[in-house]
Fold this protein.
Amino acid sequence: MREMTLYGVSFEPVGKQPIVLLKTADDDKFLPIWIGHAEAAAILMKLQGATPPRPMTHDLLSDVVAELQGEVVRVTVTELRENTFFARITIVQDGREVEIDSRPSDAIALAVRCDAQIFADDDVIEESGIDFQAEEGEQPGLMSASRLSDLDPDEFRRFLENVTVEEFASSLESLGYDEESGEEGDEEEDEA
């Protein structure tokens, strides 16, 4: 198991599908996970310090855990099975650890609210992680792959370096995401 940092949330330009990017804490290996628009918005809102007028789902869950004298201590991306990532949320309550199954997108949205550590299983990083380091003089561009299996590491690196939060936010609006209600159409998520 390796510690990860939340590198950011972006979107792939072809299908406008959000991607959460985790980066290994000790080197330049990235783990991209395609997620839903609601979860992407929840992660971005917290990263930007925005407070909704009413608690959103991940805020509610964080509040419930705290009221029950629990603490979310870590989330772990545990496996990749049939192109779908799986995760676990670890909560400590009264000295005992409780692990709860979760989608990675929900686990990460909760982790950013609770300042919990994020980890990924070594096998997941080995199977889906992408290594890169920026080369001098390279001009960033946009990624055109819609699936991880189609991904060119150089193109993905340019994508990471170029996409801004503002572009992501405008993509949510163009897809009809309602920020206040948090509602959107059905989307596949947490896929490789």
Observations:
- The two ends are 19 Å apart (CA to CA).
- DSSP finds six helices and eight strands in the chain.
